[in-house]
Design brief:
This protein has eleven helices and nine strands. It binds S-adenosylmethionine. The site of S-adenosylmethionine has 23 residues, from β1, α3 and β3.
């Protein structure tokens, strides 16, 4: 019996519904309900929030979110085999869980939720980065969601919170930190999952800032950063050559030495450079 609800233990749920993990769907399940409740708590106070969960699988994290008081959970799961198990959870929490059998890359589930919205997920690794980039680049800021609490491979989590001067620093760090407060809130070894993946994992919490830390046009900033880190070992005057004929002057105007490399330039100066290119 679990400590957080009266539903059967997850191992039993998996056996009852024949949910053998499929690698192609990135299925590494969390079966410890104390751990899933801890991840749910890392998302903050859920009591007044709608929660979007991508990839509920057998429902361990879903149960954590509901037990921690989420007002409503919308869970999007691609694998139809999981639906009967999720339906049992919906019955235990009447009116508080909706399950969509869909590919999260094909739909915009945020449309179905009411603010405040928090997104919490143990993401399938094969689509995690793509979903994160979508959530970080909405048409307008602030976004529809207040926070993201997401499990990633440790290496991806490190890239999200990386600071200038480190190998992990790049496009993902800039994209995440420009408009969010981003921090790693939990580390998990492979043994926390069934089956264990090859790599360690970490949970990242990103809280949307009301406005960007420094002004910049999102499309220009994105172009500059993509180009700068595409050739991260080159000096910026060479890596950004195609952006403007007088790129050296613009780099200097932004407080960047033309001989600097992308990985030493902080967010504030990338935004300044985007502004000089916007002029
Ligand atoms: N949340 C569960 C847990 O923590 O035990 C399962 C996590 S497992 C890492 C990832 C889940 O995402 C699987 O249930 C998988 O079927 C589902 N999934 C994979 N690709 C998906 C997609 N494109 N859209 C929605 N769900 C997907």
């Amino acid at each position: 019996m679990s400590g957080i609800d009266t539903l059967p233990p997850l191992r039993e749920v998996i056996a009852t519904h024949g949910l053998s993990a499929r690698k192609s769907l990135g299925q590494n399940f969390l079966l410890d309900l104390n751990l899933t409740a801890k991840i749910a708590r890392a998302a903050g106070d859920l009591t007044g929030s709608d929660v979007l969960e991508i990839g509920p699988g057998p429902g361990g994290l879903t149960r954590g979110l509901l037990a921690e008081g989420a007002r409503h959970v919308l869970a999007v799961e691609k694998d139809a085999r999981c639906l009967p198990a999720l339906d049992e959870i919906a019955q235990a929490y009447p009116g508080r869980l909706t399950v969509l059998n869909a590919d999260a890359l094909d739909i915009d589930p945020l449309e179905h939720l009411s603010p405040p919205i928090r997104i919490v997920a143990n993401l399938p690794y094969n689509v995690g980065t793509e979903l994160l980039i979508r959530w970080l680049t909405p048409p307008a800021w602030p976004p529809a969601w207040d926070s993201l609490t997401l499990m990633f491979q440790r290496e991806v989590a490190d890239r999200i919170v990386a600071q200038p001067g480190s190998k992990a620093y790049g496009r993902l760090a800039i994209l995440a930190q420009w408009r969010c407060e981003a921090r790693i809130v939990m580390h998990l070894p492979p043994s926390a999952f069934t089956p264990p993946p090859k790599v360690s994992s970490a949970v990242v919490h990103l809280a949307a800032l009301p406005q960007p830390r420094y002004p910049a046009d999102p499309a220009i900033l994105e172009r500059v950063v993509a180009k700068a880190f595409n050739q991260r070992r080159k000096m910026l005057r060479a890596a950004l050559k195609g952006l403007a004929p007088d790129i050296e002057d613009r780099l200097i105007a932004a407080g960047i030495a033309p001989t600097d490399r992308a990985e030493t330039v902080d967010l504030e100066r990338f935004c300044a450079l985007a502004r000089t290119l916007d002029a």
